[in-house]
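A common beginner's mistake is to predict each chain separately and then try to dock the pieces by hand. The better habit, illustrated here, is to supply every component at once so that their relative placement is modeled jointly.
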Amino acid sequence: MQTFLSAQERSDQLSRHITQAPQEYRVLSGERPTGALHLGHYFGSIVERLRLQQAGVETFIILADYQVITDRDSMGAVRRNVHSAVLDYLAAGLDPETTTIFTHSAVPALNQLMLPFLSLVSEAELHRNPTVKAERESSGRAMSGLLLTYPVHQAADILFCKANVVPVGKDNLPHVEMTRTIARRFNDRYGALFPEPDALLTAAPHVPGLDGRKMSKSYGNAIALGMSADETADLIRAVRTDSQRHVSFDPERRPGVSALLSTAALCLGREELQVAEEVGASGSGALKRLVTDAVNDFLREHRARRAEFAAQPELVSQILRRGAQRANDEAEQTLAQVRQVMGTLY
Ligand code: TRP
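With all components supplied together, the output reads:
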């Protein structure tokens, strides 16, 4: 298993080469539709996707709906979450003409790839995946068969369209590593068919949740991109700060104040220390007003565009249907090749 540092170096090199030769790359990126997209997604993945789109790289975005039930029983508001994510992609400037947006439940041939892929990994390898282990622990539940095997499913997400670049955060590195292993073993066993995709570690700034923990809808500490300005203000007003009047950046001891500073810094394109200095002794009330304005200004246009797209009744469904069509074409072609080399075309 490669170390994080070498993954970072490789990723930096890759990033440079992608801009030089965009036509050599195909990108697959994705997320689980478990809630509304928030500022963490914006700075963590959407900005990178826009960069790749601008560079002219062909991109697929998967909304991994089956992955929702890896660590919970209910699909929740999956339909709403999928629609909401598409609205955010559009509002952010992702172009569905060049970016294929789809859900994996709508692509049967993609899911079928999971069967031969499962034969290529051992139970021990599945159990060794640190991200799966962490997710099992934080779910507080027994390991489900899907939780244990979803990294193989994710390999199918990536390989069905023969993507060779996968933008991910650190958490997902083990899954890309498993995808490479599966591609290599498949090719060794049946003949060269799949690329061994590289992880593109996004150089995303850390976006803390408003309480200093990881930003997550389930913690109630996330600023959703689609929130109204008033909802944003309410959420920020409720952040727990401390009684110290002077605002300073100290994530360990002052998680609330520091998360507010980080949020403002990101939205204003400045450093935390600068913002802290500006607020100085005016206290956390003033800081909260500054953060609220910074976030609402930063998201104003996004939200206005989002509302325009949301007002077009059939738009999102059309985009998803078209994306599924394209993804199905790709997946069926790949599955036919898989069956060809496996000798299962009768
Ligand atoms: N596991 C990813 C996450 O935690 C979501 C995902 C599903 C994904 N399939 C993918 C990411 C394929 C990259 C490539 O958000």
